[in-house]
User: Fold this.
Amino acid sequence: MPLLVVGSVAIDSIETPKGRAPSIIGGSATHFSYAASFFTPVRLVGVVGEDFPEEYLALLRSRPIDLAGLQIRKGRSFRWSGRYQSSMASAETLSVELNLFGEFDPVLPDGFKRSPFVFLANGSPHVQRRVLEQVDAGAERFVLLDTMNLWIEVEHRALLEMLGRVDGVVLNDEEIRQLTREPNLIAAGRRVLDLGPRVVIVKKGEHGALLFAGDRIFAAPAYPVEKVVDPTGAGDTFAAGFMATLAAEGRPRPDFDTLRRGVCLGVVAASLNVEDFSLNRLARATREEIVARYRSYIDVLRVDGDAGIAAGRAAGVVESRLA
Amino acid sequence: MPLLVVGSVAIDSIETPKGRAPSIIGGSATHFSYAASFFTPVRLVGVVGEDFPEEYLALLRSRPIDLAGLQIRKGRSFRWSGRYQSSMASAETLSVELNLFGEFDPVLPDGFKRSPFVFLANGSPHVQRRVLEQVDAGAERFVLLDTMNLWIEVEHRALLEMLGRVDGVVLNDEEIRQLTREPNLIAAGRRVLDLGPRVVIVKKGEHGALLFAGDRIFAAPAYPVEKVVDPTGAGDTFAAGFMATLAAEGRPRPDFDTLRRGVCLGVVAASLNVEDFSLNRLARATREEIVARYRSYIDVLRVDGDAGIAAGRAAGVVESRLA
Assistant:
């Protein structure tokens, strides 16, 4: 089922301990749509300037990504330049030019208004609300919202209002601590559930992710990646794997099993994304390769070598061999 | 099968955002032996002074912990005072008095020399070597070593030598980065395998643990704990759950399944330990409660609600519902 994303399409310049990549394709909607397109058709809404390289548009067009909602306007595209230190934990922004994205007014083509799966990528809560107002409210849908420290600080009230209107929210560990003023991530996750969303996901970078829904929790470690080249877009790629699972399974009202599989595909998609700059690694990937890594990830999670051995039996082994 | 631990038995004074606890029982060998004793008999080697409260010794004696190797000598016990900030990630040492532990010369009672499972708790590599020299080398055994930033820095060569002589090593994320000068934990874990041990475990506090053995990796998230009262001893309690699993299963040559179960029991034991000061929480626990939490932890890890659904099938769901 089709998956709508509204967010940035950008030109990035990135330095990491593994190298430099000037003027590459970036942006939240870019990373999200490219990764999700391996599993479900994607509808992209965003804005770029006339300076946006044709070859980058061709890269998106080469995938099942509908660009009917991508405005190409007079002016310059969103540009971001950043640097990562050795831990790769967070980027230092060297320069940012919002350009056309600073006055972005998302307009959904009529054909996009009936979208059962929606990702509101990081952006002002006001812009996110504008999107939600255009999506057909009648049909069943699952809307996931992303945000950042800036909006938590300067648009706190508008953000809280949005949290009351979406189905899920994805935050990183710093952001959820900032939002809730609660240092314990388990307590923080539960507190955000109380703010409205049925699903809360905490992204922890190299430490994986936590999923909260109702009174249930799923803790997903990261897929082990030995050589991280560039973490940019990992969060959006994670969200893509998650939302693509819901869309591919056709579940706007996902049960906990679907949510867990979504988190796992998110972890796996993100693990590929960080192995090279920009979309380079995903552009070399195939659906089969992603599914193979998903399988090997499940093996990394599994407690018994024999997958047929369930929780009770594993605990039973410990129990029955007590001294 | 019996499990030997050599390490500190101490009097701690601790402040955390959840409260203060002056002059409580602490020490690596204390936390380790108490937690492990739920699953296997323990032999403790350590030293305390005449100031060590009788009630604390009684607490250890109330469990299947053999104190024949605990020297009670003229002088003062090891005392440590520390404070945790809100994140609970690491302690600030307020004061430390090594006292008798500073000149600790471990002597194994004859009955302890044949120990198939040995935990060398954090201590000078020279003291750890002294222990190893007394353990009967003829029999099959599994020796796990713990260490800290101090020894990595000031006893680097002696520590490396010990890594070539033990079966497993447990380090936290900062320590393994310091030891290998490799920021990526996956790469760092593999590098430590090259130094000798067959098993490497990285403890990541609230983010769980990583297990490396041969070319296999198991990533274990932490058990979700909403209210962390005091993290002191969590690492030793983790090591206890791990070693107790090997001992309870009787496997000095553990296969990967046993290692994984050990890591899981370690995570679960540590999650109980942090819910109160000192041994308070474990003193209220029963073996049944620990096993019940182990079961619920396996549920936190599991990717499909139906435990019978294995990796392949979960991946298959994603695969077969592709748009």
About this structure: Chain A touches chain B through 69 residues (CB under 8 Å). Confidence is low (pLDDT under 50) at residues 305-315 of chain A.
